[in-house]
Design a protein that fits this description.
48% helix; 329 residues; D-Maltodextrin-Binding Protein, domain 2; 10 strands; 12 helices; alpha/beta; single chain
């Protein structure tokens, strides 16, 4: 009898452990950048909130540095349910939703206040784009992850006016940014961020588009002499979750996820803009930083205004609606 009771106890404990394992929901997240990067830390904050608020009912497992999927694979991987969630450069969704590249239209969001208003959860622009991403890919946008704003780097001479870009070969990281370079008189060359340093060092391009914070993080001051703070467009990532997976969760857990997303979205945006300023100021002794005057900025605006018009006419009805909303800010 004692042996029987002991066996039953072991079986009961094993069954309880099995039930607990089944009850716990694991959210696997694919990330492109290291966990120590601001976007990785952003997901760690999300993980902490979700696990604490759910009482351990939900576990968040991060896979940083593209361990599972490359940036361009994330939309399909998350949308198909191959993985529950992930982050990707917003432009990676342009294949399904061309309108997402509105964030790269020059001088549409030319102040931090405008960008914050446009990227805020519940804004007209977010409502249009988030709904389109969900419809076309099956990925639910949880929050936008601010990465910084666009600047120009050069080696031979400072870039102050559009005339300084005429005939220059310029590194870009998106199609619409290529349109911008063409409007400014340059020749665009699409190139990933990881290839910048070597390309600048070897002179493969004359000028580079990049984020303000990358001057320091990628040590680009070692291969470029001038940095122009054009801040003409934004660089945004998106945190997405498979919609079927999200809908399979209890209403309580859905609420926890959405609440956590709203919290970390605001935290990251505040931190990124503060760190962008800090990062640029930190390299002013290493690279010639050019702060454009309002008159110079007006020249850039005038020269690139047609990019927004072209975007609205060539990228579909959703793009036209987003441009209209953006210009109404």
């Amino acid at each position: 009898m004692k042996r029987l009771l002991a066996s039953l106890s072991v079986a009961a404990i094993a069954a309880l452990g099995s039930y607990t394992a089944q009850a716990e929901t694991t959210i696997r997240v694919t990330l492109q950048l290291p966990q120590k990067h601001a976007l990785g830390q952003n997901w760690l904050s999300f993980k902490k909130i979700v696990e604490e608020k759910s009482g351990g009912d939900m576990k968040v497992q991060l896979f940083p540095s593209a361990q599972l999927y490359k940036d361009k694979q994330v939309p399909e991987a998350v949308g198909s349910g191959a993985i529950e969630a992930g982050s990707a450069f917003l432009g990676r969704f342009a294949g399904s939703v061309p309108a997402v590249e509105v964030i790269n239209v020059p001088f549409l969001f030319d102040t931090e206040a405008k960008l914050r208003k446009a990227a805020a959860t519940g804004s007209e622009i977010r409502n249009i784009l988030d709904a389109a991403v969900l419809k076309e890919t099956g990925a639910k946008v949880l929050w936008w992850q601010a990465f910084g704003r666009n600047i120009y780097l050069s080696k031979d001479k400072p870039i102050r006016t559009p005339a300084d870009l005429k005939g220059k070969k310029v590194r870009t990281y998106g199609k619409i940014l290529g349109w911008t370079v063409q409007a400014l008189g340059g020749a665009p060359t699409l190139m990933s961020g990881s290839k910048q340093f070597l390309a600048y060092q070897q002179g493969a391009v004359d000028v580079g588009m990049t984020g303000g914070s990358t001057i320091e993080s990628r040590k680009l001051y070692e291969v470029m002499k001038h940095a122009t703070l054009s801040y003409d467009s934004a660089i945004e990532f998106v945190a997405v979750m498979n919609n079927k997976f999200f809908n399979s969760l209890s209403k309580k857990n859905q609420g926890i996820i959405l609440s956590a997303a709203a919290t970390v979205e605001q935290q990251l945006r505040d931190d990124v803009y503060a760190n962008e300023t800090r990062a640029v100021n930190a390299v002013r002794s290493k690279i010639n930083v050019i702060d454009l005057t309002e008159a110079e900025r007006a020249e850039w605006r005038a020269k690139t205004k047609g990019v927004g018009d072209r975007f609205a006419s060539e990228r579909g009805d959703v793009a036209a609606a987003v441009i209209k909303a953006a210009r109404g800010l």
